[in-house]
Amino acid sequence: MATIKQYENKKGKFWLFKTYLGIDPATGKRVETTRRGFKTKKEAQLALSRLQVEYEKQGLVKEKNDTFQEVFDLYLEAYKTTVKEVTFIKNEIKFRKWILPAYGNYRIREVTVKKAQMILNKWANETDQYRNLHSTAKRVFKYAISLGIIDINPLENVMMPKRPTKTAQEIVKVYTREEFIQLMEYVNSKSGGYRNEYDKTLLRFLFYSGCRIGEALSLDWSDIDFENKTVSISKTLSQTKYGYKVSTPKTENSVAKVPLDEETLSVLKKWSIQQRTVMFRLGITNPTMIFCGMYKEIITHHAIYSRMINITKKAGVPFYGIHVTRHTHASMLLDAGANMKEVQDRLRHTKISMTMDTYGHLSKETKEKTVEKLIQHLGN
To answer: What is the pTM of this model?
Structure first.
């Protein structure tokens, strides 16, 4: 029992069919459906025949016209319960900037291997993150399979483009000994004022502790053990949907007591006095955070990033981002003769492979310098 007829709307003339398929054994109700949008009567007849065959095999198959955007919205709701908020925000930004503009309007069943390949090739020409973007988009299609919307993942069958591989030297930027001295001499020359003393103390701490910027900005004075000469790292400043908050650190291995040198401890003691003095004049007492603003407000990564652009420009050294402090710390350790295991422990990497992948080239340069010193010493 089926009806096929023509209808008209603003877009033109089309065909539809209405049909009764039987009784749903799960609900005991009549199964009736209407399908629209066919350009010809023949298309409507073929679609009706396919539907009747499918229903006989597996029951009513609902129209699966979900767009990538619709599946993504469902995926995102489930995904955000599985990761930390800061990770969720970073991935959501990735979706909004790259993945949704590419896939969002496609009906997910219409995405072919060819379309996926074209999107991937375009990404490969535009960003180093193309592999990660592809992997992330692929998870949405995998989720669509679990929802029964598609049977195969078209993104599984593309060919991964190759880009010229960047060397570790190109990826990891560090200051030379001369550049580091030049930067610190400039910072230390800017005495007086809350901001100058703040910058001086923060950069000293970052370069000599190897801590991440988020870890430093979350520190309280109670985290510094002046007697045992350590700083306790147990939290980090993270970006959330509603601003910044102090949360758990990057990994479990990040939690540790990091030894500090005498001079850094001395700079911190001096900063403690200066901070309290400035705040007292403003009627503010008992500062708890080490690197907060003069009104006890949180200072964000973005603020420090902007400051570093200005400081490095005036100091006459390259700007390599704020993470350069951690990379330079590792470089100085290797120059001083530390081995890779010691650098791993100091930086609190979970695996030594991470340390090797990031700083292996620095170790090679250090070894070459060591050989040169030996030759010079032996006079040959």
So the answer is: 0.61
